Amino acid sequence: MSQHDARSAVRPDPDQPMVDIADYVIDYEVESQEAYDTARYMLLDSLACAMLAMKFEGCVKHLGPIVPGATLPGGATVPGTNFELDPVQAAFNIGTLVRWLDFNDTWLAAEWGHPSDNLGAILAVADWMSRRELRDGGQPLTVRDVLTAAIKAHEIQGCYALKNAFNRVGLDHVILVRLASTAVATAMLGGGKDEVVTAVSHSWIDNGVLRTYRHAPNTGPRKSWAAGDACRRAVTHALNAVDKQVVGYPSALSAPTWGFYDVAFGGKPFEFERPFGSYVMENVLFKISYPAEFHAQTAVECAMQLHPLVKGRLDEIERIEIQTQEAGVRIIDKTGPLANYADRDHCIQYMVAVPLIFGRLTADDYTDEVAADPRIDALRDRMMVSENPAFTRDYFDPDKRYIGNSVQVFFRDGSSTERVAIDYPIGHRKRRAEGIPVLMAKCEAALRAHLPAGQVDRVMALAADPARMDALPVDQFMNLFRV
Asked: What is the pLDDT of residue 1?
C-alpha cells in the first residue's frame, strides 16, 4: 500500500472500484438481446424456486414482517403469500424464498455465488416504487426495468467473483450480493453517481459475514437466508443514500489500517478480468435438473447414468471414485454424520449416493426421513473424492467455465462400471438449446404446485410473449404470484 499520513484529515477521491460501479449502473446501456432473453428466463426460474420453497416450513417461518403486525398496505408484495411489506423486509423475504432450496442460478469462478439472489432487493424496490408511483399519479416500473437492473447486478457480482476469492479469507459470497444490490437499488431509487458511491462505501464498511455456516462442522440453514439478509441490508444502504443523503466514505476500501483491503483482504486490492458489460448474465449457469450445490451438478448427472447399472448391486460395491474440481473438493467433500438439510445439500458424497440408489435427487431427498436410509451412509463410506487438475483448469478458463465431475463404481469381484465424466451440466450456456425447455418445465411445474391455475396460465402466456412481458408494470407482474 502507498505511504499515507495517518494524521491527515484530507478527504481523498473515492476508490476507483466504487467509481467504476457507479459509472456502470448509471451510464451503461444494455444492448445484448441474449442478456435480456437470459434474464427473462432467470426471473421466471427464480420465482419458480420461490414457489418451491413455500413447501418447506423452515423457509416459511422466516417470511412476513420482522415483528407481527408490521405490515405496509400498498407496500412490496412477497411472492407465494399475501404479505405487503416495506421494501427492506420484503427484500429479505424475497431473497430468502429465491435462495432457500439452492436451486436458483449460479456463478462459479475464484468466488462462487448465485446472482439471482439480487432479485430480493430488485423486486422489492421495483414493486414498492411502482405501487407508490401509481398511488401518487406517476408511472410504474416495468418488467424490462427489472431485467435491466438484474443484468447489472449479475455483472457486478459476477465480475468481482472472477478474480477475487472472498472465500479464501473466510468471508461468504453474499458480500457480493449486498454490493451489487446496493448499487442497483440506489440507481433504481433515483440516486446518481454520488449516491451510488456513498451507498457502496457503506456496503464495504459492513465488511462480510463468515462462511462458517456453509462448512463442517457448523453447516446450517443460515446459508439459505443469508442472501435475503444481504438484500435487506442493501436496500437500507440505498434508501439511506438517496432519501437521507448520508455521508459516504471515499476510501472505504483503500484506507490504510482501517479500510476493507487491510482489514479483510490481506492488504490486496481487487483484481478484475474484464470491464462491466453483460457477460455474466449471458454465461450464467441454471440449476435445471437437481437442487444441488453447483459444483456437484455434473456428478449427480454421472450418478444418474450409472443408476441402472448399480441399483441391483449396491451390496457388491467395493468403492466409488469421484473426481471433481479443486473448488468441489474444498466446499463439498464431506465425511461423517450430516446434521441437517443444509449439511446434506453441500456434501458431494450424499448427492452422488442418492441418485445411485434411487435414480433421483429432489429437494425432499435432503430430509431426515430419506437420510435415515442406511444405504446412503454405507455408500458414502466407500467413496473417494479427489481433484482432477483438468477439471480445475477448465473451471477457470474464461472461454469454458466448465464444472466437470466423473464417477466410477468398482465391485468386489474386480469388475467396474465405465468412468462417466461430464464437463458441464444442462444449465450451462453451451447447453442452452437443450436446457431452456427443461427449465421452463421446471418453472411451470413449480408454479402450478402453489398458485391458482389462472395465474399460472397468465405467467406462462407472458413467458411465450417476451415483448408483452417486458412491458408489463411490475406491480401487475408481482400480483400474478400472490395467493
From this structure: 40
As given in the structure block, the three cell numbers for residue 477 are: 407482474
Distance CA 411, CA 32 (A): 51
Cell digits for 135? 398511488
Question: Which position has the grid cell 427473462?
Answer: 40
pLDDT in tens, 251-310: 999 999 999 999 999 999 999 999 999 999 999 999 998 888 999 999 999 999 999 999
Calculated CA dihedral for residues 65, 68, 72, 75, nearest 10 degrees: 30
Residues 88/236, Cβ–Cβ less than 8 Å: yes
Sign of CA dihedral 150, 48, 296, 372: positive
Q: Tell me the per-residue pLDDT of 194-233, one tens digit each, with 9 for 90 and over.
A: 999 999 999 999 999 999 999 989 999 999 999 999 999 9
Buried b (16+ CB within 10 A) or exposed e, 458-472: bbbebbeebeebbeb
This prediction has a pTM of: 0.90
Quote the CA–CA distance of 39 and 27 in Å, as a whole number. Answer: 20
Q: What is the pLDDT of residues 351-387, one digit of tens each?
A: 999 999 999 999 999 999 999 999 999 999 999 999 9
Q: Which three three-digit cell numbers place residue 404?
A: 466437470
Q: Are 231 and 92 in contact (CB under 8 A)?
A: yes
Using CA of residue 59, residue 62, residue 68, residue 74, what is the dihedral sign? Answer: negative
In whole angstroms, give the CA distance from residue 35 to residue 463: 16
Q: Give the Cα separation of 207 and 175 in Å (integer).
A: 8
pLDDT digits (tens, 9 = 90+) for 86-120: 999 999 999 999 999 999 999 988 999 999 999 99
Query: Around Cβ 116, how many Cβ atoms within 10 Å?
Result: 31
